[in-house]
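Before a colleague's protein record goes any further, I have to sign it off. What it holds is a sequence and that sequence's fold in token form. Would you go through it and say whether the fold makes sense for this chain? The record follows directly below this note.
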Amino acid sequence: MKIVSTINEVRQQVKAWKKEGKTVGFVPTMGYLHEGHESLIKRAVAENDQVVVSIFVNPMQFGPKEDLASYPRDLNADSILCENAGASLIFHPEPEEMYEDAFCSYVDMNGLTDALCGLSRPVHFRGVCTVVCKLFNIVAPDRAYFGEKDAQQLAVVKRMVKDLNMDLEIIGCPIIREADGLAKSSRNTYLSPESRKSAVILSKSIFMGKKMIEDGERDASKVINAMKDMINSVPLTDIDYVEIVDVNTMKSIDEIKGEILCAIAVNVGGEARLIDNFMMTV
């Protein structure tokens, strides 16, 4: 496995692979990799001849008061995980490599980005779309892999690829959880022991909400209120949102039917903003 830091090095390697008729899988990450990322890499390795993993903490998707400076980084540990999972190449650029002086071109989206995380993090998805578009142009993969934990991001990337006629397949992969149910996240490392105990309520509320729907509840407000009550029953939690939306439009719904996404974002202990979700067809 190789680690490169320049766009030219990635392009040269991918062109060489494609001359040999090899398929290329791509897993974009911000690093500090965990078992969730590992599952994406292993899926990519199983379905492609060569796999590129990008490790880039993208400044464009962080708001002015968000955790860009403190976002955890550990390239050495990330490299070991990538190699053990079967990746072929890590692309680890500096911000200056991705955004030259006077950079002024952006990829923006309306509609899908107006709710959920897009509402509380107004610059986030412009940053995500711009960097992901750049990475797709740099790596030119046949397939790219994203976790379903970031369900809105997955929907946004799929729509961008469709709208802009990009020639690749986007593949969503299941949420990987800790033994107690908490969704794996690089930001879990921010949590103190006390906050970590409280954080389990996120997955508990997700499992409860899903069961309510499976048992026949179709009133979205009843499911949402029950989940909010459960989250608020433990200390150190501050709800950003609990929403049930149409998975194709990200618009809130009153009646639970069709393809739905139930998504939550909760600030835990003032230390980390965590997200979780479930998707189902009713």
Notes: Residues 232 and 243 are 15 Å apart (CA to CA). The first helix runs from residue 7 to 19. The longest strand covers residues 237-246.
